[in-house]
Amino acid sequence: MTVASVQPLRCCSRKSIDLAADDTGFSRGRNIILHGRNQMGWLFTSGSTRRGLITERTKCWERTKDDGLVVNSTCLAHCFRGGSFAGVLWSVWERTFTTNGVESSPKQRWIQCDLLRHQRDYGWGYKDMDESCGPYYFSCPLKYLGMAPIEVYGGNAEWREQVIEHHRRSAEKRRARRLAKQT
User: Fold this and answer.
1) What pTM was computed for the model?
2) 65, 59 Cβ separation under 8 angstroms
3) Would you state the pLDDT for residue 38?
């Protein structure tokens, strides 16, 4: 079995859009799908808080299929990097597959990147993607790369190199600032 066959994840692997929305853009539940400029792929929950959204996005879940297969997804780690009104929620997920208590498929791990932002009159919303999308965001904690090793679980090698380079440049800037303060 190759690494590529172990990770069947694709961009935006978690279903986030409520397809039961009416033509006004409002779903039958609490979620609001905004249409228009710069809104594609974003899901907002009316009146939500950043803390509540992060709790919702990192909540573990379990599903049992009709054939007895139990799919369990667990958030192993998460952190928010950003400001008061927008940022990135990084998380590492693990998914296991068991039937009658026995592992039936290899476990999967991946790094999730949820863009979060506050929209006036709507609340907090998110746009989800994982590393296979090659997000143009590189503030992912380095330890997360180790938690989902590319040799075992697959992933996006080019994006990971850019994350490592981002952290190298950030450390270099911090060193330069520290040296400037000492002189």
Assistant:
1) 0.77
2) no
3) 54
